[in-house]
Specification:
This protein is an alpha+beta fold and 276 residues long. Helices cover 33% and strands 21% of the residues. It contains 8 helices and 11 strands. The strands form 2 sheets. The protein has a 6-stranded antiparallel β-sheet. The chain has a 5-stranded mixed β-sheet with strand order 4-3-5-6-9, with no helix packed on it. The protein is elongated and about 65 Å long.
Length: 276
């Protein structure tokens, strides 16, 4: 979406104690319990010394976790999202983008106890636009997406994430597109198609291409929801991390792979002839 140059936004942060800090576009605010943070939150239970950062950028505000040890959450419009922990030196790769409106930010305890940071993004209109009585349409906060377990893309995402759901150290290699396609055949008990997959390169390429479409759709949704910083390369590892850290796919979903009813539903989705 193209943002009109006449429209700028600034972020306003309100602490649990009522202190208000404004962040103009191009600036950032680091918050946490430590004295080296720009904004110290002494009553922030569960926060690191440098817990997170709020960047005021063109078109909104970016919130990210700076801690390697503590979780940080954002909450807005009924959604609570856990922001990915910092894994290496430098800037975080994942976060929450707020175009406009409000979001709550803090540790789980801060949110549960009603003492989070309140982040608000408001628009400022150039005076010439005000004089003409013209105002661009309001932008809404980008919400995280969810996946319906009764869809093919859910199975693809689950198989993609499965190694890291089983291995919390995330050292197990992730499956590539043909491996996901073959695993989908196994889960759906498509044994005849499995033989074709192993012996027919044309069929293998066609099925892998179908899986590839679902993987591209997942990458597109992540970008549309602002779940990664603009310009981040969406490698397999980055996408799977986003899916897991935002609880789009989680370890509880692994039980579906042993659920006969769910597997039967997936078999119908993948292999039933299309009417007409």
């Amino acid at each position: 979406m193209t943002l009109d140059p006449a429209l700028s936004r600034r972020a306003r942060v309100t602490t649990p104690a009522g202190r208000v800090v404004e962040i103009c576009e191009g600036n950032r605010l680091v918050f946490g319990r430590g004295p080296d943070a720009d904004l110290t939150i002494p009553e922030g239970r569960g926060l690191s010394r440098r817990a997170g950062v709020i960047n005021a950028v063109h078109g909104g505000a970016w919130v990210a976790n700076l801690s390697r040890t503590h979780s940080l959450y954002t909450e807005s419009d009924g959604y609570r999202v856990r922001l990915p922990r910092l894994e290496e030196a430098g800037e975080p790769r994942g976060g929450w983008f707020l175009r406009m409106g409000t979001a709550l930010v803090g540790s789980r305890a801060m949110l549960d106890e009603g003492r989070p940071l309140l982040v608000m993004v408001a628009e400022e209109i150039d005076a010439d636009w005000e004089a003409d009585g013209i105002r661009p349409d309001d932008e809404q906060t980008l919400l995280p997406f969810s996946l319906d377990p009764g869809t093919k893309v859910f199975l693809v995402a689950l198989l993609w994430c499965r190694p890291w759901l089983i291995d919390p150290s995330r050292t197990t290699p992730l499956p590539r597109t043909p491996e996901i396609a073959r695993a989908a055949l196994t889960v759906t008990d498509a044994y005849y198609e499995l033989e074709r997959f192993d012996g027919d390169p044309v069929f293998r390429d066609r099925l892998s291409a179908r899986v590839g479409e679902h993987l591209r759709a997942l990458r597109r949704k992540i970008l549309e929801r602002g779940l990664v910083r603009e310009g981040t390369r969406l490698s397999d590892e980055v996408v799977v991390e986003v899916l897991i850290e935002n609880a789009i796919i989680d370890s509880a979903d692994l039980v579906r792979l042993d659920d006969p009813a769910w597997r039967s539903r997936q078999e119908h989705l993948w292999w039933s002839p299309k009417p007409g």
